[in-house]
Amino acid sequence: MQRWSMGVLLCFVVSGCALPPGGGSENASDLGAGPDQVASRDLDIAEAVDGLVVGHRLMAAGEYELALRAYYRASAANGVNVDILSAIGSANLRLGRVQQAEQVLRRALEQDETFVPAHNNLGVALGEQGEWGEAGLHFRNAFAFDGGRSSEIRDNLRLAIEKTAETGYDEREAHRLSLVRRGQGRFLLLDTPL
């Protein structure tokens, strides 16, 4: 008899674990899902996960390779646009792939030549390669299209201006060189003694 009552009790315990109270009719918010979770908003996973948003969050977390993958998924799902190209360029820049970043950012500017992040990030890529003259042009464009609101762009522009102002000569060398005319329209740069 004791065996039989134990079996019935075990059946009740197992059936109680299988279904929640109310027969399993709760939605995800009743089970503790927060408002920012997909299940609580009754959305399909494909609709809820935007690769661009995921990529931006991964970039903020320092996960640049994963962010790049998310941006590629976003481009496959939504098509290639200036936002995605600029994001891919930024991820490549953070990964140290400067020339790849430059190529992608130039493609972004072909789509929208007024897109501020693409101008700024292309300026950064060019500055990394020592091309401060062209970098300064892109920083100027970014500053103009942004209306001067971003302090980061202003700082980048200031740095590019400083770098282009540096001639590579120190004061003593700059005074040692002189331009001398030789014949008709020919000029020769001579080193003059101090």
Automatic annotation (TrEMBL):
This is Uncharacterized protein.
